[in-house]
Fold:
Amino acid sequence: ALVLALTNPYQVLFWLTVGVGLLRPGELDVLARLPVVGPELAGTLVVATGSPALIGGFFLGVLTWIVGFPTGLVAAERRIETFAPIVAVGSAVVLAGFGVYFLYDAATTLTALGA
Structure:
């Protein structure tokens, strides 16, 4: 997995672009670059790049995502497995109801045309 991660072009490009910007000391005004409202929001969200807190927070966020996303998927799967039969039965009832209604509508239309 390490070789796959090291040779992944997306990761390499990320660290060569955004990653270098995170590591270089300085400041980044995040909202100033927005196309329409940038000038009004300039100075609202300024991030100090190159700080240990930013780098630590970044990796803590990655770790949280790595653990939290699969945990969320497992929890969602359990809920879906319990909820899926209810949705299937409800869908079958609605489909059968419309089928009966269409048959009734066709029968009354044919009866009205024949009279």
